[in-house]
Amino acid sequence: AAISGERLVSTLNSSQLEIETHLSLGATPRQAIAQYRKDAIKAGLIPTINTMMVVGLVTLPGIMTGQLLSGVPPLVATSYQMVIMFMLAFATLVTTLLVTTGICRQYFNQAGQLTTW
Predict the structure, then answer these.
(1) Residue 99's pLDDT band (cuts 50, 70, 90)
(2) Please, what sign has the CA dihedral across residues 70, 71, 77, 80?
(3) Cα–Cα distance for residue pair 76/17, rounded to 1 Å
(4) Is 65 inside any structural domain?
(5) For residues 80 and 60, is the Cβ–Cβ distance under 8 A?
(6) Residue-wise burial string across 27-54, b where 16 or more C-beta atoms lie within 10 A, e elsewhere
(7) Residue 112: helix, strand or coil by DSSP?
(8) Structural domain of residue 7, as residue ranges?
(9) How many CA atoms, within 13 angstroms, populate the side-chain half-sphere of residue 52?
(10) Is residue 114 part of a domain?
């Protein structure tokens, strides 16, 4: 979430003229910053996706290791670890969405005008 928040703030600060152009042409605040928000969300999810790619190949996570050492079949341990990784990815996605939504709201006033932050 920190990566996506930082990316969104820096992009919005550097793209104020483009955003104001979109607003002056009739776009809503949400439409004016939609692409910047999507890019920030993607950037925020990259570390989680990279972690999911290497689980089991490069590293063995704690719950999976503990289950394997206690005699649980590898497929059961792997399925539990997959569920945990998907829960972590979903939690990261929800947090990223909340952070970017909050930041976007800070950049516009009630009239839909861009404010400096």
Answers:
(1) very high
(2) negative
(3) 54
(4) yes
(5) no
(6) eebeebbeebbeebbebbbeebeebeee
(7) coil
(8) 2-106
(9) 15
(10) no
Q: Is residue 31 part of a domain?
A: yes
Structure tokens given for 104: 């976007």
pTM of the shown model: 0.84
Q: Does residue 117 register a pLDDT over 90? A: no
Number of domains in the chain: 1
Residue 45's pLDDT is what? 96
User: How many Å apart are CA 94 and CA 43, to the nearest integer?
Assistant: 14
**Does the residue 113 lie in any domain?**
no
Tokens in use for 4? 């996506």
Q: Token digits for 80?
A: 């539990």
Percent of the chain with pLDDT over 90: 71
User: CB neighbours of 44 closer than 8 A, spacing ≥ 6?
Assistant: 1, 2, 3, 4, 5, 7, 92, 96, 99, 100
